[in-house]
## 1
Amino acid sequence: MFNTQVGDFSREEFMSSGHNACAGCGPALAVRFLMKAMGPRVVVVITASCWSIISGVVPLRSLETVVMHCPFPSAAATGSGVKKGLEALGDLQTQVVVLAGDGGTFDIGLQGLSGAAERNEDILFVCYDNEAYMNTGMQKSSATPYGSRSTTTPDPMLKTNPKKDIMKIMAAHRIPYAATATIAFPEDLISKFKRALETKGLRFLHLFTPCPQGWGSPTDKTVELSRLAVMTRLFPLIEVEDGEKYTINYLPEEHVPIEKYLNPQRRFRSLDQEEVALIQEQVNRDWEKMCKLTAQ
Amino acid sequence: MLYSNENKNFPPPISVETVSTRVNKTGLWRFLTPVRKEKISPCRSHCPLESGIPRWMNKVKEGNWEEAWQIMREYNPFPAIIGYVCYQFCVEKCSRALYDEPIAIGEVEKEIGLWRHKNYEHKNSIPEREKSKKVVIVGSGPAGLSCAFYLNMLGVSVTILEKLPVAGGLLATGIPEYRLPRDILKKELEILKAEGIVIKTDYEVGKDDLPNLQDNFDAVLLAVGAQESKPLRIKGEDLSGVTGGVEFLRDLHLGKLKEVEGRVIVIGGGNAAVDAACAAKRNGAEEVTLLYRRGEEEMPAHPHEIKAAVEAGVNFIFQTVVEEIIGESKVQKVRAGKTALSCRGEEINVLAGTEFYLDCNLIIAAAGQESKLSEVAPSFPGEPLIFAAGDAVSGPSTVAGAIFSGREAALNLFSMLEHGKESNESFQIASPLNGKEEIVSFESLNSTLYSRQKRFDQPQEEAGRCFNCGLCSKCGVCWIFCPDLSVDGLSGDFEFLLDYCKGCGICVTECPTGVLTMEEVVSDEA
């Protein structure tokens, strides 16, 4: 039988076709799942990112709910304010979801997010990570992985620093719930959204969402790449409760070499074998560390 | 949705856009279009019956045995028999073999047949008086029975004539009982009779009877099989103690021959030879030796059969040809010689000075079979309403091949009877493939959606492992992974909403059964 039990998913959609995402967009798919889990009773706060456009330019909207746009650094702050405002109006039910890209989370939005996390504001912060500033033309962010090409780290000056470990940062804030998820595992993703909705306080979701335009991968490989990221153990599907209790949700059955994930992407094209071996080593090391964390 | 919320507090006092992005027809961005096109599975392409395996597997997976049978009978009216006897060329090509373990297709097929045996009810048959056409079938082997089944289904009155006292042809008198339990055949025949097919045994048809049959029936189908062993054309062939392979098996099954004694030599390398060797061993022969004139790799017998024979204790001597049978009135020994290496179809060269002698009490000559077709009907082919099917036409093949031939004959015969009336859907008989259809490759499937699993004993669970290659199983994977919501998830058919499809191709890559392809489709707007 399938690993993906499609029959269990709700057929109801709270997102419309005709949005402006590129063909094969990972973030669009991720938010579609998000809305499926969430339902319409939610305020979505969107910071500057691809989703500023995908959610519709005036007078259009692609999400069947209330959307609020905000400046780049203030995603978490705006979310916190909206939540407090709703509470002041006596609406304790409506959820506030902050939608930010990796730039709005790892770089520009980090101080706002850190503040909200410290105050433990009752919001769900969703970071859809496509590993660069894709909307403005693929400039590198601190989520861009080692060895990746971008317009600010062009070939041969590839990115030399590794990706920031955002999950550790969020865990260090001791927030009640943080999790990683990706679009190739919709069951896992939707169940994590639902779990997040049931939790009070700041919840953080790190979504791995391939971007065919920026990564130079074929548009049809979006889901496959996100699956490979999990299978190669590059992007483990985990949950962290109260910054302490780590759980790995999916243990890959076999070892898939990292080349399988790197090869279809043009941004990694100029890596030589040595560098690929380095990446593989790093992945193995990170995975071991993660296993140790879950064992404790 | 937005404004119909019951809670007065929602939405909060904030301005919202009111026009849906659905006004954007993003389908205009598309270069390539996903197209759902059912393709031929590798198992089907290698099945002598061209059976739509993924289709009935899908029904078994759902636990819907009735529909599984309804689909099965379009291809194969006797799944229980095929489940037992078929060599399962399908399993050799199963895509799942490249992933973990091939599906036990034969086992599932057998279960459908056994379900049918258990749940058979006489219903919906056409009353005798409404059957305006009458057809007679000579021979009750798999081809004849299959043709009878389909013709009966199409509303033709069918009579089968069998020269032996038992019906079933090779199924009754050729295939060993350990491969096909006789109660399975009995049950199939019972069902056919209950459906209104008349089977007359002990009724031999000679060439003089044919005009008579033509007078009494609208059409004649000759399915006499290839039931005569070819003569060896060597000295001593007429001695007592020399018999043919099919004749030997027939005598054994009919009880004319109770026991085999002494040393037996079987000549030939086909399934009939191996079956005869096994049967001789099982029925008391002291020692059974099979002589084949070429090497083991060249043997036409199926590897399963050869393995069974080795296990039964049959000796094999390859590269050996019998040149003379020696004995006074009864067989005593044979003179044999070694042959040079050769492939099938090449000439046999006996090496000089290699002759040797083997003692024996019985010789079974199973080097090929031929049909009596030309004896029964010297005028065939040529007359419009005389048809032939099965081994009689094709030479010795498989049971599945014979059933296929009977199916085709039924289609042709029926169209001919109805004067060129086109075959249509209500026929419920599968048309043969033309060999040009696209076959689904393992690479076009998204096998990663399945976990690796070994075979299950439960047929329903086992059917659940089937990839359903080339058949849309309405799983909805295309719908769930569409970032543009351009697959309609509400209808259950997962239609593409081409107004919005941007042509990314995720659905095609993710499709677990390989029914989707990206194609260049010129739209009307362009």
## 2
Amino acid sequence: MNETTNLLIGIAMGLNLLALGSSRLPTLILAMSAQGVVLGLMPLLIVEPPDWRVLLVAVATVAGKGLVIPHLLRRAMRTAHIDREVEPFIGFVPSLLLGAGGTIAAVAVARTLPLLPEHSGSLLVPGSLASVLTGFVLLIGRAKAISQVCGYLILENGIYLFGLLLIHSTPLLVESGILLDVTVGVFIIGIIVDRIQRAFDSLDTRKLTALRE
Amino acid sequence: MKELSLIIVPLVGAMLAAAWPGNRTRPWLLPLVGLIHAALSCWLLAAPPAAPLGAWLAFDALTRAVLPAVSLLFLVCALYGVSYLRVRGERSNRVFVTALLAVLGLLSAGHQARHLGLLWIATEAVTLAAVPLLHFNGTPRAFEATWKYLLIGGTGIALSLLGSFCLGYASLHGGGVGDLTFTALIAQGRGLSRPWVLAAWVLLLVGYGTKMGLAPMHTWKPDAYGEAPGIVGAILAGGVTTVAFTAILRVRAVVSAAGEAAMADRTLLALGLFSMLVAALMLLGTRDFKRMLAYSSVEHMGILTIGAALGAAGFWAAMFHVWANSLTKGALFMSAGNLRRAAGGRTTDEVCGMALLTPRSAAIFVTGMFAVTACPPFGPFFSELRVVRAAFETGHGAAATMFLTCLLFAFFGLTRLVFAIVDGRPRRTARTAGHHFPETMGLVLPPLALLGCSLWLGLWTPGVLRDAWTAAASQFFPVK
């Protein structure tokens, strides 16, 4: 089971790099949602045999991160008539280098962390750290509101990955509450994105500079 | 059951508000729910229920010491809200009233949460529920502020989730079962894995510190408070921040049980002093009187954090200051809202002579400014005095000196700005706008009532509150 989970986390780490390197918004959204689906399947592999509660969390996560959230983002993109360029502050090559360096650093750091024996061979912790880092690079280094939201969601994916370490002890209620909060959050973000587009006639966050000292 | 009603009644009220047809009558739901909530929380304050140890939601000593302040503040804000929404009758208030009531319900849930996961869910939900309140004015500036609030607040709150998981892993790695209730974590105490506790403390402090508005994570605050209506600022500054503060206090108790109390106190003290310093410097520079209130809030969050770092006496003072700050800040936000509407501007370049245009609100604003900068005999003076005394008693003389210096600079900054807008001759544009803004009783009495409460807290601190604060302090610092 460990090999399969590691393979999935490896795919998720590859999707991080795709997200960092993509210059088109639809690709970025696709990378983010594919990562969400991959991570959503993980509980089924970790808990053996999967009981109905784990199944419920997995289905909810895949549906939420793979369908609902990308749909909301695409709709926000359509209604706001955004052109599809990503417009980076931090260029694609530096972002990729940061992402790759960060992934290597995450693997190295995770080795020095005190982990339980059953987690020491797994990529859970490095994968989580790498996704959190990717999320931060996208949050800081992208100008469009939608790409920042994707960065936030990749950060959230990293945290979800870390949460899998606790899957045997976190109750279902907490898991579903967190998922609900994230989904509602994206829904609200979608509304605000639409309003910003109407108010500023653009989704470029570089134009949001009226408020400062 | 009464504890749960504190959460359920506002949420039911929110649903009712969403379905209510009349735009003119809907705001009356605010004081109605506020009154029930305040009555319930005062009842619970006077007769505290038993708090079962393993429960996920409980009205424990800390909740009892803090939640009634939020409840009282909400009630007064709700009364102001009725008059305010009448002035803003041109806008539909369906979403505003619904969101405000939802915020109250979720705040009550956050205050009572004894499970890290549940606490996170409630805090994140409050963050999201407050979004429609921030952009009620519908201006581009309001949307810009909302965006910054969502992004910075969202990232901060995500980091606190990571911190919560780290604390769970600390329990797992230390041989526990990864139970995230505070009772279980404290019971495990030194059994928690030390490196993971430290990681969790940093992440949770940054996460909930962002929500609380501690420097350097405070950057969303001036924007959000500057653009939101006055009552929203009051509820964010006096209610939402207290949830984050109690979250930090609860996590600190776990860290201290794990044997890292000295480290936790050092970081709290450093972060608190840094917040005060940043706030004092920004107060000297800002020209916008609504942003000024945000920096003043950053300063007071710093004071709370410093109090929390100074042992039982400091903790007691921090509880006192939660009350003093929430109530006084509420009066300032509401009167500032009145001034802002009457003047049609917000910076010293656009606004002056408000004492002639809106004499009552201006008088409340000036008095409130003196109250919040710790002039006797208002509440903040006595609570800050106790923080200083606790600092000297625990041998933090240098910190106390810096604390007092920052207070002095903040005083200079606030008086400079407040008198610049109150004194002088009103601008001609403002004089015509002023005629459209009658200072009705509904807009003047609520802030006045809060100032009265602040005075009452300072001069005659009620015995039941002292008992509640002592009970909370002894829950976190058991007498050995």
